[in-house]
Amino acid sequence: MRLSESSWSSSASGLLVALSSPSLLILWTYLATCAALLGWVYSKASSASGVSSKRSPLWKAGSLLSLASTWYFMLAFLRYSYVDYVNSSRTLEASTLRRLKDWLDNTRLFEQAWLRVVQGPREWWFSSEICVITTGAWTLWIRARQRQGKLRYAAAYMILGQIVAISVAAALSFLAVAEDTTDASTSPSDDSSSSSAPGKGRRPQDKRQTSAASGVLLLELVFFAAGAWAVSSPPRDLLQILTMHVFPLFLVLLPPSDAPHFTFLAMGLSIYAAALRIRNTLAVLTTLQAQETFIEALWNTFWAHPAQGSISSDHVAVSLLVSSRILLECSSSSTIRANWSGIALASLTPLLCPACTLAAWVAITHG
């Protein structure tokens, strides 16, 4: 009886500790939100792709492998941080829940992880790609599918990418339009040419529509430019970090826009991404030690820390997914130009970076 009372008392005490810790509650809420949103988006993407899609298994496998690789390192980082804190503090005699509370109350997990993956040129070489493709090419790809009416719940994919992993969200967005082709000549908004008869002036409704379209275009340019600025260097201050996360979400919440400016915008983002890749690569080369190769430097960086491993595996997964997406889309194209361009871009993705090649592909197919 005493043992039972003691056990109950210990459990009640642990529960009180858990409930009294905002940090612990935030962590559990974050993990629960990730799981719930992932399940919801996966179900919506699977439904959108259809049961008869031959390509759905590829994107489902890609999303699951991306999740496994990125979150293996993410959970390893949580364990690493916890063990490091316990070993350096005087909480060894406390209960597990008490140690968890103290750890979370005294550790800034996000800051700890983020500062690790942007601390130097080698780390930023991996991390920058996730930032650049999120604020640029992948968001533009989503906008193109929104214009065609092929992708619903775009904001859910963007939020999922930011709290789980970009590679997971990208794979699921590809799943949602698994049978997509490169034919972008038609869209729900392409009936504007018939809105006014030849020889007659525009009606007031047409003028309002034109003004609204111009407003959306202006916002797109401003939001993409803001995102490009935020990732031009490792984001360490609050303004850069907020801009990097918030503006892509603003973009996918905008009404669908017309296609004519897509070529200009996509090529600009592609060139910008390539320029950043070249600059980041040159920065890594300046850090090489005697007899150390570029590949060795990246390999050692990948495995240097769990937080770095998570975002580095995200980088690798995104590269593979983008290459696969471009190849599959070009295989269904009816033009030789798109076929050869797609093969070239998919092959060059590891070198030029997925943000560059995906944006270039959008320019070719949705201009």
TrEMBL record:
**Region annotation Disordered: residue ranges?**
182-208
Species name: Ceraceosorus guamensis
Its protein name is Uncharacterized protein
Compositional bias of type Low complexity: which residue ranges?
182-198
On the tree of life, the source organism's domain of life is Eukaryota
Transmembrane regions: 25-43, 64-82, 124-142, 154-178, 212-231, 238-255, 261-278, 343-364
Recite the UniProt keywords alphabetically: Membrane, Transmembrane, Transmembrane helix
Q: What is the lineage of its organism?
A: Eukaryota, Fungi, Dikarya, Basidiomycota, Ustilaginomycotina
